[in-house]
Amino acid sequence: MKKILFIVAFLVVAGAAMAQKYAFVDTEYILENIPAYTAAQDQLDQISQQYQKELETMHAELEKMYTDYQSEAVLLSDDMKRKREDVIISKEKDYKSLQRQYFGPEGDLYKKREGLVKPIQDDIFNAVQDLANEGGYAVIFDKAGSMSMLYTNPKFDLSDQVLQKLGYKN
């Protein structure tokens, strides 16, 4: 009797799973077709290059200080050596601190990215969620994500509908 109940329960669950609707979107494609995202990426790239240039300049100064110290070390007294080493160490700490401030996990670039890109991603998520509710989809996959999709039928691609829901034309 338990076997029969198990088989019936399995068939009911399998039947329900087969009746589910699935679709996919390509968030990479969607983002490429949103001008605000492209502008945000360009702005982030410019900021990143500016920060990188500033850090490279600071690093070059550090390298010069260290090279000068090495070449002059034989002529310096122990007290002067310590002072120069302290200056170099302090400059290195400043460099690493600035690097963390710009590119760290909670750094300026991260915060700027959060401010520019996250609202766009939230809009996409809300549009996908609306389409899922309207179309009765159980699952909507992201083709651009890390998940492997060996085959996708274009008739189940909702990417253009997401763009339309956001007010963009493909």
From TrEMBL:
Species for this entry: Mangrovibacterium diazotrophicum
Top-level taxon of origin: Bacteria
Coiled coil: 37-72
Gene3D superfamilies, A to Z: Skp domain (3.30.910.20)
Database matches in Pfam families: OmpH
Family stated for the protein in its record: Belongs to the Skp family.
Protein name, UniProt field: Periplasmic chaperone for outer membrane proteins Skp
Gene Ontology terms: cellular component: cytosol
GO molecular function ontology, one term from the record: unfolded protein binding
Listed GO biological process terms: protein stabilization
Keywords from the UniProt entry: Coiled coil, Signal
Signal peptide: 1-19
Entry annotated with the keyword Signal: yes
